[in-house]
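Milestone M4 deliverable, item 7.
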Amino acid sequence: MGKTKLNLGCGNDYKKDFLNLDIFSTKADIKWDLEKFPYPFKKNTFEEVLMKSVLEHLSNPKKALEEIYRISKPRAKIYIRVPHFSSIHAWGDIEHKRGYSIRTFTKENLSDKFEMIKQHIEISPSKFFIRPLAKKFPVLYEKYFAYIFTANDLIVQLKIIK
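Output delivered:
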């Protein structure tokens, strides 16, 4: 194996410097169902984990994040992209189980195993006028404006605390 970066649920987004895992992709290095635990890796294997459009498909995303914690090295970086709850993408795919909020990846939900490095709500460039509000006051945006001026995704960067 030898690679210290993991592209979890890679789909067709094969990354050369990563170990690419997916159940359906013909390009994946490893075929694995992310609903099956434990994942096929030893503890403290990866320095970086990428999950783009994956968590919203899982029945138990919290358990998946616990498994990511197990297989990640101390101080590993975790990059996550999920559909924002106001996005048509959150509910337009029959396989999606949930949308996500700026409050999803808090310590109350993830414990002290993860440190928030940064997160932001991605909003279409055509809605340029609402982007500064969502960036500076994301909770206010979600509470009062998200269903009027919908977002696309929530982009999150976490660090493993071990």
